[in-house]
């Protein structure tokens, strides 16, 4: 099942919260008990510097009665950041939102608003986060304080990255690099820029960007951003098929990450180490780091690192022949992966919805303005002549018609974006989440009407060798050609989806066993005769098929997938490029 791991985005999901905790770290020096000095020092350090930050907050708490109203506002702001860094986002959001929306201090309001955006994303409230981003960026030109500008630019760079708007993310990241006056902020900008490049699908960094980013993050020391940049370099190694280099880099920095104590970052290191060790064949180390990632992620059940950890444990149990453990971890992986994919789709969809709402509001205002101007003109023309009045009415109708056309176009765009959220970006067929939903719906219909149905699992043979020998571009071409070949043998009612990597699923409703086996055999033979292309004609393509039926496995999708996976495993074991049907052994009668 690591086939899904090769194509997933391993961009650090804790990066957005890193912008929340990042600050300009001043040199450690004794601070007097003057409240103004204590507040200034507390605002200038990372809350991840637990001992110093907590000591400053303790001293501020003792001086609470001596604080001015403005200082008390800063004190509340610092308390909210302390609560959020501890992971209690629900408790931190209300006070930060109140400060952002109500304070007259523009700098403090800007900082609090940037923090609110970060926490809204952490709470999966993406539409609210994007709705607050545009007003925040509107305030950015007024912000002259260097660290405040860095915070605002960082929020924009990372949030656009989360919405897959990589060009916009790179623009803000370049601005961070350009305006940075120290290695820490330069590292931050290079991290965002490299993360955008990774998210866009690149397998490696340009040489000059790699050099400048590594140099800046090296000078920055072991900050959260510099550690995340090294994690990103390891992710590029994984994407390029170099798990040994990824292990070396991650292991060298793992103790530093543990000392930093930021749970999302720790879990990403552990989950990626688990996947890299699994690729290297060291299942003991893989299982150890997978379990550590799950323990770290106890409050983050739908994160990417949680899904990777369950996937690795499933593969390890399956390799060890522990069917019960493998099935349990497979079910947990499906749930975690589904939740994570839903969050990805929600982010992209929220960005488009907010964008469309802004456009719709703009058009509405323009339409109302035009309507008001036309009504004024109509009044003037009424006083002059009835003929001119009729012309005004025609112009008004034309404007209203144009507004209706724009409204229709906006609605159609929203529907199109919702459709894209259900599709696999590479092949165009259903993604795992929508395949599972559609297949379960079809099975309920077949169950009620007593109709037959079969589930087919498809896995391309030796796909890792294709990627390793010819590169990911050729691998992507192989996947698209295989999908196109299968679609030629499917009906409109059949449900076809990509489950991950080079593994696909097909639900064939209202189709008896002979028809199913005939069509599956046709697909297998067609894939085996596919030519990848003139430039790589030496690439041999074949696939193994596992088939389960409702007659044998019942109408429960999980049972059908389990039995089809067993049949697929047998097809692989028996030599690949073949079709196997899952059949339960007959029940032996009891002999008295």
From TrEMBL:
Signal peptide coordinates: 1-27
Keyword annotations of the record: Membrane, Signal, Transmembrane, Transmembrane helix
InterPro entries: Diguanylate_Cyclase, GGDEF_dom, Nucleotide_cyclase, Rev_trsase/Diguanyl_cyclase, TPR-like_helical_dom_sf
Catalytic activity: 2 GTP = 3',3'-c-di-GMP + 2 diphosphate
TM stretches of this protein: 391-410
Keyword Transmembrane: yes
Enzyme Commission number, as recorded: 2.7.7.65
Pfam families linked to this entry: GGDEF (PF00990)
Domain GGDEF: 451-584
Gene3D superfamilies noted in UniProt: 3.30.70.270, Tetratricopeptide repeat domain
Name of this chain's protein: diguanylate cyclase
Originating species: Rhodanobacter ginsengisoli
Highest classification ranks of the organism: Bacteria, Pseudomonadati, Pseudomonadota, Gammaproteobacteria, Lysobacterales
């Amino acid at each position: 099942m690591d086939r899904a791991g090769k194509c997933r985005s391993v961009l650090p999901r804790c990066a957005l919260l890193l912008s929340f905790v990042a600050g300009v770290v001043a040199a450690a020096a004794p601070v007097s008990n003057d409240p103004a000095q204590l507040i200034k020092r507390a605002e200038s350090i990372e809350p991840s510097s637990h001992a110093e930050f907590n000591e400053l907050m303790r001293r501020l708490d003792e001086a609470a009665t001596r604080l001015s109203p403005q200082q008390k506002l800063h004190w509340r702001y610092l308390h909210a950041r302390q609560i959020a860094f501890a992971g209690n986002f629900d408790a931190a959001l209300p006070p930060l939102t109140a400060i952002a929306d109500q304070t007259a201090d523009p700098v403090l309001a800007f900082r609090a608003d940037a923090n609110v955006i970060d926490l809204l994303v952490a709470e999966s409230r993406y539409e609210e986060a994007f709705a607050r981003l545009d007003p925040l960026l509107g305030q950015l030109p007024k912000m002259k304080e260097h660290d405040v500008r860095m915070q605002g630019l960082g929020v924009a760079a990372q949030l656009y990255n989360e919405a897959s708007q990589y060009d916009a993310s790179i623009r803000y990241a370049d601005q961070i690099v350009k305006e940075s006056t120290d290695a820490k902020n330069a590292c931050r900008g290079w991290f965002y820029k490299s993360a955008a490049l990774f998210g866009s699908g690149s397998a490696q960094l340009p040489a000059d960007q790699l050099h400048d980013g590594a140099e800046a993050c090296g000078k920055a020391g072991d900050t959260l951003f510099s550690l995340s940049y090294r994690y990103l370099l390891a992710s590029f190694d994984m994407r390029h098929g170099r798990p040994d280099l990824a292990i070396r880099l991650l292991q060298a920095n793992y103790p530093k990450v543990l000392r930093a104590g930021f749970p999302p970052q720790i879990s990403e290191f552990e989950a990626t180490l688990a996947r890299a060790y699994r690729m290297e064949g060291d299942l003991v180390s893989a299982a150890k780091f997978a379990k550590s990632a799950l323990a770290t992620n106890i409050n983050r059940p739908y994160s990417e690192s949680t899904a990777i950890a369950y996937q690795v444990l499933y593969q390890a149990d399956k390799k060890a022949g522990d069917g019960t453990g493998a099935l349990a971890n497979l079910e947990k992986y499906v749930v975690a992966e589904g939740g994570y994919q839903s969050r990805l789709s929600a982010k992209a969809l929220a960005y488009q919805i907010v964008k469309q709402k802004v456009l719709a509001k703009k058009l509405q205002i323009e339409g109302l303005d035009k309507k008001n101007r036309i009504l004024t003109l109509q009044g003037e023309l009424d006083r002059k002549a009835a003929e001119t009045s009729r012309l005004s009415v025609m112009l008004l109708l034309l404007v209203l018609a144009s507004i209706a056309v724009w409204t229709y176009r906006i609605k159609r765009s929203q529907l199109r974006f919702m459709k894209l959220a259900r599709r696999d970006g590479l092949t165009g067929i259903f993604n795992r989440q929508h395949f599972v939903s559609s297949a379960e719906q079809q099975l309920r219909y077949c169950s009620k009407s007593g109709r037959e149905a079969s589930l087919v699992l498809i896995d391309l043979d030796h796909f890792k060798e294709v990627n390793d020998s010819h590169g990911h571009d050729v691998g992507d071409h192989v996947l698209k050609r295989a999908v196109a070949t299968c679609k030629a043998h499917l009906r409109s009612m059949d449900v076809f989806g990509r489950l991950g990597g080079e593994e696909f699923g097909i639900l064939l409703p209202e189709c008896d066993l002979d028809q199913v086996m005939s069509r599956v055999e046709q697909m297998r033979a067609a894939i085996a005769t596919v030519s990848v292309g003139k430039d790589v004609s030496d690439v041999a393509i074949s696939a193994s098929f596992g088939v389960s039926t409702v007659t044998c496995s019942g109408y429960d999708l999980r049972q059908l997938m389990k039995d089809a996976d067993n049949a697929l495993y047998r097809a692989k074991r028996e030599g690949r490029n073949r079709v196997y049907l899952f059949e339960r052994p007959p029940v032996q009668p009891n002999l008295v």
